[in-house]
Records
---
Amino acid sequence: MHFRISHTAPFPLVLLLLTFLLPACSGSPPASLGPVAGGLAPCPETPNCVHTGFRESADIPEFTLAPRWTDGATHDLFQRVSQAVTSLPRTEVVDRTDRYLRAEATSRIFRFVDDLEVYLPDEGDRIVVRSSSRLGRSDLGVNLRRVEELHEILRQDGVVTNPPTP
């Protein structure tokens, strides 16, 4: 008796499993999202979150507004911020007001979802930005790179003035 082993048989099974398991990587948005007490919720203890309002690291850029944006024209400002956020790869704005924006950024392969928030406090000359992974502990620096890329887009657009932190 001679048995034949098919090397392609597991592929449909793997594809079927991935179809059902990968959407689970997105998780649900945390209840802590949104403006709180004039800012954004602090990052959790895990290293997969970046927050410009809580200077956890010298690597996090500050989003100091250019003088032309400190006069209170929040609608135009947040229109530009929204355009900058949607120019980030695989990022979609899901909630927006005149002073707050939340977007979801989805990873290319495993479809992990990160939450990106931008908030303009009533007073001050800075935008507060928070980017956090929904699942896991490590993000391999993805959230920091996202915040740095957003900073660079806004700097080139004249929305923020300060150079990136070295």
---
Amino acid sequence: MTTPTSLTRIKVKNVLYLTDFSEPSEAALPYAAAIAREFGGKLYALHVLTPQPYVYSTPETTVTAMEAQEEAAQEGMERAGAHLAGLVHETIIENELGVWPAVERAIKELKIDMIVVGTHGRSGIERLLLGSVAEEIFRRSPVPVLTIGPWAAAAVHNGAKFHRIVFATDFTKASLAAAPYAIALAQENQSRLTLLHVMKERSRKDGDKFGAISVADAMHSLLEIVPPEAELWCRPEAAVQYGNPPEKILEAAKDRGADLIVLGVRSATGHLGAATHVERATAHNVVAHAQCPVLTVRG
């Protein structure tokens, strides 16, 4: 039985936008700016300079290469800043051995409420912005992460207004951690909210023993997620489907014209091979192939 979710008022005072100045990063910038404007917050644009291997370099040429890297970063930040006119913002360039330590420090010191990042995803999720760092960020971040995948990059960001939201869950604690954000954003935007649970396909050998929850139970549990005091303009839609979780989540979002998918993810405790609430591949594939932004919340 699912415990009704308590209402959470979304407050986004400080937005952290991560960039490596690539096209995916540039595609994510309008979303970051729109969210900061919508919530009256401040935008921090962060670029992390990590050590680069300089093969066959002398000390002199290495210094020259590093200086060129820093100069390019400064120019990139100036271009990003030009798109943020009229918005309270700050650009930051950090030198660090890895991206996550700089992000973690920024979250704490700048009191970040949300992170926005773009991804590549050309061959599945294996090629994310900053390599595998994007996944590390949304699994380790204590604050929600809005990821703009390659298929979502061409979509209109609607000024950070999300009118059709799909929240997917398998009722684990990790997945339900994202429910308050899905409900609060639906309430904030008076959105249509779809609550989705995906079951694996039945097989003959499973027989009547398949699954610990029936479709009727799943539908009931989905509707219980939304507290009765939630001021939504329409009744949330509960949907239960059989099949491959990422495929069905993407299909449900596409069929409903969703402009936001919300997922809970398990923390990357130990290593990034740890499963999410619907296995690691789900978050990978949804983020890489979604035609809208994906908001992940660590459970």
---
Amino acid sequence: MALVILHRPLDEGGALPGPLVWRTCLREVVFVDDDANPDADAERLVEGDAYRRLLEILCGLQSPLLGETQVMGQFKTFLGTLGPDAAWLSRLGQRLLADARDVRTEHLSGLGSRSYGSAIRRDLTDCAHAALIGTGKLANEVLPFLADDHRSVDHWGRAREADTSGLKSAAYRTLDEVATTPICGLPTALIVAAPAQSGVIEQVAGRYSSLRRVIDLRAEAGGRPIAVSAPVVSLQDLFARVRAADTSSAAKIEAARADIVSRSHQYALRDELRPFGWDDLCA
């Protein structure tokens, strides 16, 4: 079965249709039949080109935060949702994950700070308290970093069963009960790791009388800028900071890309190798 995908950034229109759709916070990938009509707004990639794009995504080379690891977890979650009818995609996914792990180990393991939690660490040094909005995977990736240096943490979300990753210092608070009375007078950083509306973020920010900064990790702005008195560090600011420190990593990135090209070529040739098949008989 030929590998054919449709690929498009999430900000370029509505959701692509199809039963086999993998979506991240930045993109969506649809696995389609070879004879499917391509979406006019999506990039169509076939076989080796499709495998290369998927492998680059899994290695974090298509992410603004080059080399980030969260996307691999998102792909594993997607594979876990597949039914028996998509067994071929499950097998392909395991091959992709194995190749991605090898590329990361060989070329990207010493790349440095490549997680959202480690990327925001410098914004927390002058804060004795942190407040986190969100209960999803990104929030729980960031949460352990917030408790560094004995920092106390408030965890805001809508679900009472939010996973606080075992952090005893994380006090869970529900967004449905936002009030106006101050919570904490300690220097505080507010981290937004969920698609919350700006008004909700402002309500939470108003609970902290010594708010030092807001770190906004939302892929989209949420309708309008956040109106708070403290400085706001946007996701784009974070990416720009990381890119500025990426000059020393250029050789590793290029080596990883070359390795990915080689592995994609091997994938594209897989159906041409027929040990003891009819090609051998005609040799």
---
Amino acid sequence: MKRIFSKQNRALLSELVRTDFKLRYQGSILGYAWSLLRPLFMFAIIYIVFVEIFPLGKGIPHYPVYLLLGIVMWNFFSEMTTLSTTSIVDRRDLIRKVRIPTWIVVVSTSLAALINVSLNMVVVLIFMVLNHVELSPLVIVLPVILLEEYLCALGVSLFLATTFVKFRDIRYVWEVVLQGAFYITPIIYPLTRITNLTVQKLLLLNPVAQAIQDARYVAITNQATTVYKVFDGGWYSFIPLIIVVVVLMIGVTYFRRESKYFAENI
């Protein structure tokens, strides 16, 4: 454990995070501002279509902020897993020339996404103030919810990055999966629109959906449907957390097993 978090590894990780963040917006006129503008543009389009034209959020308090928070959290998962997929191959020259722990490459990409979502959360907070959202004491749990989502995304990222070394098609497969998952996950529509309780339960077994709904509950409105509510506080409400642990363990195990062959396969 000490070796993993050694001073040298921390310095390398910090440098890779800064490099990833700079390269992502290099050459663009607005630069880092895109990390804030992208979710805002997406929010504006979805808001016009699904709030003004098709009022899906009717009856949900502070629905614009409710919607924005869902988009920000979904973009975090999507961005982190998508960028991490190619992270090992993108750093092939570094891995071949320098003896470094390969996990640092994936983690650095994930931390760059974490910086993005932190900045986006500031925007969410501004919207909350403008919409007169009354802060609940439960909002202090929000960082824990983000940590849960991060660990889930990290497990997926390690698996995808490892698989991409051998099978480049996994990037396109994952893009299709994310497109479908976006509409299955209750981001645009409130779960109250789904009257079938069984369907609600199935949707909330998805750790990302559970994290989004929990975040809405603690930060915006206690009317948000959570996994704890639909399962009446039973042990089933812990299934998403169990899934996060399993996904992380699978990702770490698979990555550790295959990482010794990265240099010759990339």
